[in-house]
C-alpha cells in the first residue's frame, strides 16, 4: 500500500465503508438462504421466492456451498446446515454415480448428460471452501473433484482445460472456452491453497498465459472467448445468439475485469509460495482493466457496463449484468491494493456508486441481476436472482489480501 491508503484516504481503509460492505454481504447471504430445495439449491425469482417446483442445478448449488462456507467462516449463523445440505446434494443426486463427475441437474433430469468444465470448476471451488470451513464430506468431495479434473478435463498438451464430454467421458467437444478456463484459474488458486500444491498455480499460469498474454494481448486486451480444438479463435461463434448467458458472441468486458483480478491473485499467490511471477501478470491486469473501462463503461449514452461488444469494440448486447459490476469493483480494489494508485480508487468508488444507485434492490432484496439500457430492471438474459456468488464476493475481496483463497483469508481474520 502507498501513503494514499495508509492515510485513510481510500475506501479500502475506511471503517465506514468496511462496515457497509459487511452489512451488504450479510443481506445478500440472508436473501439467498431461501434457495434451498430438496436436491440442492435453485434459482430465486426477482422477489426472493422459489418458483413452484424450482429444480436444483449444480452450478447454483456449488456456488451456494462456496458462498455459505465463506459466510460460515466469518461467523454468520445459519450457514453450516446449508453447506452440509449442498455437499450432500453434490455427493448424491447431482453426481453421476456410474461414470463420475456431475450433471447440470439431479440425475440429468433435463436430459443433459454432458459434463462441462465450467460446472466442474465450481464444484472444485465449493469443495475447497467447504474443506476450509471444516465441513464433513468436503474432503471426499475435494478428492473426487481433483480426480475428475486431472483425469478428464486438464490437458497437459494444451496447457488448459478441455470444454465438455458426453456422460461416459466420450465425445470431447471440439470447442475450447475462455470462460470455463477463467473459472478454472479461480478454482486452481483455491486448490493450490487448500491442497498446498504448487502444481495448481503452474496450471493456472499456463491458462492465463495462453488466454490473456497471448490471445487477449493480440485482441485489444478484451479476452477472446471462443476457440476451436486447435485454439484458433472463432469470431463468428454464436453470431445468431449474441446474448447467450455463457457463450455470447463477441467480447465480454466483464470478463476482462474478472481476468484482471485473477491475474493479481495469481501473482500474489505465486510470490507467497516462492514461485516465479512474471511481470506481465501485473501489466496485463492493468491493460485488461483499462480496455474494459474504455470499451465497456458508459459507452452507449447511459451509465453502466454493457454485456458485450463486437469485434470492433462497439456496444452489442447493451444490458447491464450485475456480475460485470461486481467484477469491475473487485478488479479496481485489487489493482488499488496492488499499486496504491489513485486512478483505481476513483474507479472503485465510481463502480460502487453505480451498484448502490442502480443494482441494489432495496424493495425486494439482493441485487437486480440485469438492467436494460435504461438502467431499469429487465430479464432478457438472466431472469430472477439466482447468483449469490458474484455480488457476495465483491463485498469480501476489498477486505482481504490478494494471496491465498478467500476461505483461508477469512479464516485467518477470525
From TrEMBL:
InterPro entries: 6-hairpin_glycosidase_sf, 6hp_glycosidase-like_sf, AGE/CE. Pfam families: GlcNAc_2-epim (PF07221). It comes from the Bacteria. Keywords: Isomerase. The keyword tRNA processing does not apply. It is an enzyme of class 5 (isomerase). GO terms for molecular function: isomerase activity. Its EC number is 5.-.-.-. Coiled coil: none annotated. Belongs to the N-acylglucosamine 2-epimerase family. This is AGE family epimerase/isomerase.
Amino acid at each position: 500500500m502507498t501513503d494514499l491508503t495508509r492515510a485513510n484516504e481510500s475506501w479500502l481503509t475506511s471503517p465506514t465503508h468496511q462496515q457497509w460492505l459487511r452489512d451488504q454481504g450479510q443481506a445478500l447471504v440472508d436473501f439467498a438462504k431461501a434457495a434451498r430445495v430438496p436436491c440442492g439449491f435453485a434459482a430465486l425469482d426477482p422477489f426472493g421466492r422459489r418458483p413452484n417446483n424450482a429444480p436444483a442445478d449444480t452450478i447454483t448449488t456449488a456456488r451456494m456451498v462456496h458462498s455459505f462456507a465463506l459466510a460460515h467462516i466469518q461467523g454468520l449463523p445459519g450457514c453450516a446446515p446449508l453447506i452440509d445440505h449442498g455437499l450432500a446434494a453434490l455427493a448424491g443426486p447431482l453426481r453421476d454415480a456410474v461414470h463420475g463427475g456431475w450433471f447440470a441437474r439431479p440425475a440429468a433430469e433435463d436430459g443433459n448428460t454432458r459434463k462441462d468444465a465450467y460446472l466442474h470448476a465450481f464444484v472444485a471451488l465449493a469443495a475447497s471452501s467447504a474443506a476450509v470451513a471444516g465441513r464433513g464430506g468436503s474432503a471426499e468431495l475435494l478428492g473426487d473433484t481433483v480426480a475428475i479434473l486431472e483425469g478428464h478435463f486438464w490437458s497437459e498438451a494444451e496447457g488448459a482445460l478441455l470444454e465438455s464430454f458426453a456422460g461416459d467421458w466420450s465425445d470431447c467437444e471440439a470447442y475450447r472456452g475462455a470462460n470455463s478456463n477463467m473459472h478454472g484459474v479461480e478454482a486452481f488458486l483455491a486448490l493450490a491453497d487448500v491442497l498446498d500444491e504448487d502444481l495448481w498455480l503452474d496450471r493456472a499460469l499456463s491458462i492465463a498465459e495462453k488466454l490473456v498474454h497471448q490471445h487477449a494481448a493480440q485482441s485489444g486486451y478484451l479476452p477472446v472467448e471462443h476457440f476451436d480444438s486447435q485454439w484458433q479463435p472463432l469470431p463468428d461463434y454464436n453470431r445468431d445468439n449474441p446474448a447467450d448467458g455463457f457463450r455470447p458472441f463477441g467480447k465480454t468486458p466483464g470478463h476482462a475485469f474478472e481476468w484482471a483480478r485473477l491475474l493479481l491473485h495469481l501473482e500474489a499467490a505465486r510470490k507467497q509460495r516462492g514461485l516465479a511471477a512474471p511481470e506481465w501478470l501485473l501489466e496485463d491486469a492493468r491493460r485488461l482493466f483499462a480496455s474494459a473501462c474504455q470499451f465497456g463503461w458508459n459507452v452507449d449514452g447511459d451509465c453502466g457496463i454493457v454485456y458485450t461488444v463486437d469485434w470492433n469494440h462497439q456496444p452489442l448486447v447493451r444490458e447491464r449484468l450485475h456480475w460485470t459490476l461486481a467484477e469491475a469493483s473487485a478488479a479496481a480494489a485489487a489493482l488499488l491494493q496492488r499499486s496504491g494508485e489513485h486512478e483505481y480508487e476513483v474507479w472503485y468508488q465510481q463502480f460502487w456508486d453505480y451498484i448502490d444507485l442502480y443494482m441494489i434492490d432495496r424493495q425486494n432484496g439482493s441485487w437486480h441481476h440485469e438492467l436494460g439500457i435504461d438502467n431499469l430492471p429487465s430479464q432478457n438474459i438472466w431472469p430472477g436472482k439466482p447468483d449469490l456468488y458474484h455480488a457476495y464476493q465483491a463485498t469480501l475481496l476489498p477486505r482481504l489480501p490478494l494471496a491465498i483463497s478467500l476461505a483461508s483469508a477469512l479464516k485467518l481474520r477470525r
